[in-house]
Amino acid sequence: MDNWTTSHDRVLAQRNAEGWMFLIEAARDLRATGAIAPSSKALGRLLTDPVDEHGARPLNVLEVGAGTGSVTRTLILRLSPGSRLDIVEANPRFAAQLRRLVRSHPRLAGECERVRVHHTLVERLDTGRRYDVIVSGLPFTNFTPAQVETIMDRYLELLEPGGTLTYFAYRGTRYARTLTAFPAEARRHRAVEDVLAGYQRRYATGCWSVWGNLPPAKVWQLRRPAPSATPTVPAVSSATTVGASR
Fold this sequence. Notes:
8 strands, 8-stranded mixed β-sheet, single chain, globular, Rossmann fold, alpha/beta
């Protein structure tokens, strides 16, 4: 058996194990995990596209709610030389898995200090840095409106002027909760979407649908205005449908 086959089989086995780990954590606390499967490659590419938009200059990048690292892998591959990546994960088992990923990733051989995993909440993160790009994997629709507002304001504080935030939400969750949840839960969900809509109106520069994800998702891209920018409502680009093959 050649080295490529051995390596390929090892990667497949690792990702299969991580899929089971994600499912176990979802069964343990679906509200905190927010999904039953890791993000797809198509979703990961859209979430991390802003990293490439900065070219080859060194960046400070933050990922929040990284789970088992499906998006983290894409971020690591896209990091330009000299860039730093901070990863925030509140689940201790996911945080341990992410540290193993960082230690073993071939792209980081001898440079693991470029990527740090923080077992904490983003509200408590204190690295002394601002970020050019923030990628959020937090399940906002599982939080209270006040929690979502606190987190979004924290993201804006952590972003450099002109910096970009990407996050996603699963499609159809409002309708599913309207049909299956108690009225108070459905109201909470609508209130969270209203909070997010306020940030989208002020800062959004694009949104895309990813149908090749489980479940299908919508990605939002927001930008913190530069100080010299005229305070106008940004034009959101037309939504683009992204399939599993992208």
